[in-house]
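Technical annex, item 7. During the second reporting period the consortium partners agreed on a shared format for inverse folding records so that results from different sites could be compared directly. Each record opens with the tokenized structure and is followed by the designed sequence. A conforming record, contributed by the partner at site C, is shown below for reference.
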């Protein structure tokens, strides 16, 4: 078995083809046994002694002035007996950050810049060319790349962080498309739109594509039933030869893991959401209100801000479409609207829809506009005492019932084929009373009052139009295409049946209650009230 070859740092630096320039020169006796690239934030523990670390400075983007970050990196590399740091300029930085130069000088740690036109793999291949086991090197390299990419999982936006690290690893561009070609995340300066066009033009996904000076590798993905395309591009074909498959395979698995973690988090959040909403609907003691306000903070509620109960009913008898629910949840999160939402109401008698508690904030109107495209929504009056939530939902149920008549009544935008929104404070007393008291006894009482009129449909129709047209006989005659005297005759006959004058407020009030829905249907936009 051959012994592993080592170099002196001075021999590596002297090789003209590597494009190295001394920033903080190293000693003449420094031994170099290997070289690897890393952009992770804790690289030292992955390096063997006498190894050169190559970096483009990704960890310093946005933190180039952080002296402690630079000092920490150099102290860790020195403790791990890393031989030197080679910094590739022209990717993120045109020059080595001053804080890093200062840290190297302070700790007498060798620092060299790598010219923009020199690919890192040239340096790595030169130093690593005489390893005992090439397979061992490839395995370790795959492990380092995997650990580097894994750092993105804990980021605030893990997909964006993963694509950024992927682009850095291939020294070029990384891009993630959805199945329509929309770019979800990308990094680098590669021709992302041309890449998508070429992928679409391929009868089958090719292992490699060439677009101008760019070499491209791509892989189709399916995550929870949705299709994506992941592509990497580099001007250096050797990088894709050596790393392309490992990078795509690792990234595909990490995207699957990120998606799984995200779905688990969403599922857990929705369970907590539904559980908390159920507690409020069942009723909580006043003494526990503050405790529940604190539990509502993760859902963007502020303690003792005004909230409303919402009951939404679907136009059909089917549950709400999943995309609409997703949009409602995402819109609330994006706008900062406090929201607790549970689908399908609380009882089997509730029509398909949802129950919710929302913040009564400026973001509410836009959220309601999204929902009223296809739903009927009833909102309680604003309240701040969470113990009032059960009563608030009873109010919202009443408002939702009125909203279902909104396409007839013209209430708050109720247009045929669309939903409607009704806030309880906007409901008139008659609509309120009719929505609250519609027992069989109530219905029978009203029907008995108009029973005689119902025996003559022309007579009943005339009375309803008489009320709808504000008791204007000429207008009624015009609508019914008859002579005004015919209208007067029918009205006189109606008065005989009702045992009272149609000018009597009592008779008018009783007729309005009896024919409320018909009046709304004929006038629309609340004109029956005019």
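Designed sequence (site C submission):
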């Amino acid at each position: 078995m051959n012994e592993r070859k080592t170099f002196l740092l001075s021999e590596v630096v002297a090789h003209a083809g590597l494009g190295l320039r001394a920033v903080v020169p190293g000693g003449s006796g420094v031994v170099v046994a290997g070289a690897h690239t890393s952009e992770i934030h804790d690289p030292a523990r992955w390096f063997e002694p006498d190894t050169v670390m190559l970096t483009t400075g990704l960890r310093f983007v946005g933190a180039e002035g952080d002296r402690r970050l630079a000092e920490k990196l150099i102290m860790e590399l020195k403790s791990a007996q890393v031989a030197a740091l080679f910094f590739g300029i022209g990717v993120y930085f045109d020059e080595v950050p001053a804080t890093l130069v200062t840290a190297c000088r302070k700790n007498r740690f060798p620092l060299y810049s790598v010219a923009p036109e020199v690919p890192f793999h040239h340096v790595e291949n030169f130093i690593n060319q005489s390893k005992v086991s090439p397979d061992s090197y490839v395995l370790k390299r795959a492990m380092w790349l995997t650990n580097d990419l894994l750092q993105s999982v804990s980021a605030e936006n893990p997909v964006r962080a993963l694509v950024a690290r992927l682009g850095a690893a291939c020294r070029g561009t990384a891009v993630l498309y959805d199945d329509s070609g929309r770019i979800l995340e990308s990094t680098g300066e590669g021709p992302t739109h041309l890449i998508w066009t070429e992928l679409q033009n391929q009868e089958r996904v090719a292992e490699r594509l060439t677009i101008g000076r760019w070499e491209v590798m791509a892989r189709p993905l399916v995550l929870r039933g949705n299709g994506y395309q992941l592509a990497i591009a580099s001007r250096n074909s050797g990088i894709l030869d050596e790393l392309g498959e490992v990078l795509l395979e690792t990234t595909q698995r990490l995207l699957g893991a990120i998606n799984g973690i995200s779905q688990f988090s969403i599922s857990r959040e929705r369970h907590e959401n539904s559980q908390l909403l159920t507690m409020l609907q069942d009723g909580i003691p006043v003494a526990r209100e503050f405790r529940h306000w604190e539990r509502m903070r993760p859902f963007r509620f502020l303690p003792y801000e005004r909230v409303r109960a919402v009951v939404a009913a679907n136009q059909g008898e089917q549950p709400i479409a999943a995309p609409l629910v997703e949009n409602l949840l995402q819109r609330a999160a994006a706008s900062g609207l406090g929201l607790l939402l549970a689908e399908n109401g609380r009882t089997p008698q509730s029509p398909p829809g949802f129950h919710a508690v929302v913040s009564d904030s400026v973001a509410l109107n836009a959220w309601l506009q999204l929902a009223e495209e296809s739903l009927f929504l009833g909102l309680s009056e604003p309240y701040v005492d969470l113990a009032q939530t059960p009563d608030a939902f009873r109010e919202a149920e009443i408002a939702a019932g009125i909203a279902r008549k909104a396409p007839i009544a013209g209430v708050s935008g109720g247009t045929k084929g669309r939903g409607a929104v009704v806030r309880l404070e906007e409901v008139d007393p008659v609509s309120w009373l009719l929505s609250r008291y519609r027992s069989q006894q109530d219905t029978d009482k009203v029907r008995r009052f108009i029973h005689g009129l119902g025996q003559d449909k022309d007579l009943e129709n005339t009375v309803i139009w008489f009320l709808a047209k504000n008791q204007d006989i000429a207008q009624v005659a015009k609508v019914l295409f008859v002579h005004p005297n015919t209208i007067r005759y029918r009205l006189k006959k109606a008065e005989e049946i009702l045992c009272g004058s149609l000018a009597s407020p009592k008779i008018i009030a009783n007729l309005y209650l009896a024919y409320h829905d018909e009046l709304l249907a004929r006038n629309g936009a609340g004109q029956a009230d005019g």
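The radius of gyration is 37 Å. The first strand starts at residue 7 and ends at 8. All partners now use this format for quarterly exchanges.
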